[in-house]
């Protein structure tokens, strides 16, 4: 217990340090970049309006003061930032209204990724070198190499436009999930399939598999009790990372299908040079990803005690 507690505490400290570094770098890269973030907003207003705007958003203060105030508000109040371009819009409000949309799309996609990817990976690994294995491997390479926006175009053309099986765009009905979830899931299915196949092939080569076969263990029992249970371990540790990347990983897809998630506002903030919105959403994406990595480290320690003992001893 002492070693495990020490291991978890060290992972937590590393997570905090990583988040601090990412926040600091993001602030000085995004906020301190050349340019006037309120130029378009006050272009036709008198100079007094510019002064008031700069004072409101703290643009009249030195960069180190703005950084200190931002970190203070982030730590004490949990405030991620307010839009400079649009009055009344802030990142916290955006998370409340849009994060669940992205979570639903990403959650469904990850569910299909894991179930279908693991199944195909097992089939491919068990049929290593055969025709079925070769077909699956070719499809996996294509799915990984083809960009997401190409899948979006293909799905829109065939499923929505030609076959009329799902709406082309929009949000609010169950059928609106079909195209974005498919576009999100296809590359993930290929990735899980690739790793599951590799893990399955590796497990099949272990001595205990040959021993089980020599003892007369049936094929189905061998596959599910010995091969699957050991081959699935790398996949289990990949899922939290995928969950952590849900909010930032569907920007293209959400924009393509006009889905009111976190993706569209982020893209719009970049196009409008809305620096505070970009910074706040970047910090939020980093936070979810780092938290997922933290749980992956703990999961590794639980699955393989050698990791926590080795690292806890340092």
SSE topology:
Layout: H1 2-30, H2 47-56, H3 63-76, H4 91-126, H5 131-145, H6 148-162, H7 178-204, H8 207-214, H9 219-231, H10 233-244, H11 246-249, H12 251-256, H13 263-272, H14 275-303, H15 305-312
Helix pairs in contact: 1-14, 1-15, 4-5, 4-7, 4-10, 5-7, 6-7, 7-9, 10-14, 13-14, 14-15
Low-confidence stretches: none
- Helix % is over 70%
- The SSE string, one letter per element, is HHHHHHHHHHHHHHH
Distance between the termini: 16 Å
Structural class based on helices, strands and sheet pairing: mainly alpha
The backbone outline, from C-alpha atoms, is: flat
Structure report:
The protein is mainly α and 314 residues long. It has 15 helices and no strands. The chain has helices at residues 2-30, 47-56, 63-76, 91-126, 131-145, 148-162, 178-204, 207-214, 219-231, 233-244, 246-249, 251-256, 263-272, 275-303, 305-312. Helix 1 packs antiparallel against helix 14 and helix 7 crosses helix 9. 28% of the residues are buried.
List descriptors.
314 residues, mainly alpha
Outline:
The chain has 314 residues and is mainly α. The chain is built from 15 helices and no strands.
């Amino acid at each position: 217990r002492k070693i495990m507690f020490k291991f978890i505490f060290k992972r937590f400290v590393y997570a905090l340090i990583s988040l601090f570094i990412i926040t600091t770098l993001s602030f000085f890269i995004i906020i301190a970049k050349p340019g006037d973030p309120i130029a378009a907003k006050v272009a036709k207003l008198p100079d007094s309006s510019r002064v008031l705007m700069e004072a409101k958003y703290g643009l009249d203060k030195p960069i180190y003061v703005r950084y200190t105030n931002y970190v203070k508000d982030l730590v004490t109040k949990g405030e991620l930032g307010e839009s400079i371009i649009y009055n009344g819009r802030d990142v916290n409000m955006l998370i409340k209204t849009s994060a669940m949309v992205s979570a639903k799309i990403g959650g469904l996609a990850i569910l299909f990724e894991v179930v279908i990817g693991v199944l195909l990976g097992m089939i491919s690994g068990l049929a290593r070198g055969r025709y079925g294995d070769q077909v699956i491997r070719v499809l996996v390479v294509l799915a990984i190499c083809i960009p997401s926006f190409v899948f979006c175009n293909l799905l829109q053309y065939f499923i929505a436009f030609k076959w009329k099986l799902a709406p082309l765009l929009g949000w609010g009905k169950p059928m609106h999930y079909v195209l974005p979830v498919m576009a999100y899931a296809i590359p993930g299915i290929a990735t899980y399939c690739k790793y599951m196949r590799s893990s399955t092939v590796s497990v099949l080569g272990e001595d205990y598999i040959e021993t089980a076969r020599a003892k007369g263990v049936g094929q189905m029992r061998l596959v599910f009790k010995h091969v699957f249970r050991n081959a699935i371990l790398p996949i289990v540790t990949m899922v939290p990372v995928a969950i952590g990347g849900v909010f930032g990983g569907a920007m293209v897809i959400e924009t393509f299908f006009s889905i009111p998630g976190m993706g569209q506002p982020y893209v719009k903030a970049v196009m409008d040079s809305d620096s505070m919105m970009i910074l706040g959403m970047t910090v939020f994406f980093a936070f979810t990803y780092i938290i997922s990595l933290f749980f992956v480290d703990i999961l590794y320690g639980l699955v393989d005690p050698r990791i926590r003992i080795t690292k806890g001893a340092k």
